[in-house]
């Protein structure tokens, strides 16, 4: 009977241990990632043969019609066509906190969200926190890093709806700066 009690206690402990839901999202220790919550639902990048799930570009000198210091970090779910984009222009990216509604940044920081061909780009609130921006070590050295977090509310004027992007986290290897 005593052995039976221990087995029952062990089973109860196992049920409690494995039924607890983990809060939040823990980023991988290495590699690129881009994730957030869209209206409370986990957004994850997904690849397909014709679609890259994550993109990062930084052009320090304007090229092909892009402004100087143009940065784009984007996550896409290729299955659904849903995408979250962080864009900056005219700023040298550096570690720090960027309030997307700061009047000094009004023409420089502009996140966006799209669901297929429906775009949300009218900012209501938010921030981008850059924890690290480092270029590649020389032309042939170790890759640099672009890492941080973000959160914003964004509206589509035509649909008169707001999307809330929260708990955003990203990390990209920086292979080159053009």
What report would you give on this structure?
The chain is mostly beta strands. It is built from one helix and eleven strands. It has one helix spanning 2-19; strands at 33-38, 41-44, 54-59, 70-77, 82-88, 96-99, 112-115, 118-120, 122-134, 144-156, 161-174. Strand 4 and strand 5 form a beta hairpin. The protein is globular and about 45 Å long. The relative contact order is 0.18.
Features:
single chain, 178 residues, mainly beta, 6-stranded antiparallel beta sheet, 5-stranded antiparallel beta sheet, 1 helix
* SSE order: HEEEEEEEEEEE
Strand content: over 45%
Total strand segments: 11
Helix content: 10-25%
- Radius of gyration, in Å, reads 21 Å
Average pLDDT taken over every residue: 80
**Order of strands in the sheet with most strands:** 2-1-11-10-9-6
Helix vs. strand class = mainly beta
Shape: globular
Count every helix, treating DSSP H or I runs of 4 or more residues as helices: 1
Give the N-to-C terminal Cα separation: 73 Å
**Major sheet summary line:** 6 strands, antiparallel
Low-confidence stretches: 4-23
Summarize the structure.
With 178 residues, the protein is mainly beta.
Give the topology.
Elements (H helix, E strand, L loop, with lengths): L1 H18 L13 E6 L2 E4 L9 E6 L10 E8 L4 E7 L7 E4 L12 E4 L2 E3 L1 E13 L9 E13 L4 E14 L4
Antiparallel strand pairs: 1-2, 1-11, 3-4, 4-5, 5-7, 6-9, 7-8, 9-10, 10-11
């Amino acid at each position: 009977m005593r052995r039976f009690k221990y087995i029952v206690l062990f089973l109860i402990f196992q049920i409690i241990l494995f039924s607890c839901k983990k809060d939040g999202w823990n980023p991988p220790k290495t590699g690129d990632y881009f994730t957030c919550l869209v209206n409370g639902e986990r957004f994850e990048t997904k690849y397909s043969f014709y679609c890259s799930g994550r993109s990062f570009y930084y052009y320090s000198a304007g090229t092909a019609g892009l402004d100087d210091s143009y940065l784009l970090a984007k996550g896409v779910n290729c299955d659904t066509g849903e995408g979250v984009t962080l864009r900056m222009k005219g700023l040298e990216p550096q570690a720090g906190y960027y309030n997307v509604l700061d009047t000094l940044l009004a023409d420089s920081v502009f996140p966006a969200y799209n669901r297929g061909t429906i775009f949300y780009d009218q900012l209501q609130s938010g921030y981008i926190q850059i924890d690290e921006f480092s270029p590649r070590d020389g032309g042939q050295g170790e890759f640099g890093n672009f890492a941080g977090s973000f959160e914003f509310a964004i509206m589509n004027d035509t649909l008169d709806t707001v999307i809330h992007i929260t708990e955003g986290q990203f990390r990209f290897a920086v292979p080159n700066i053009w």
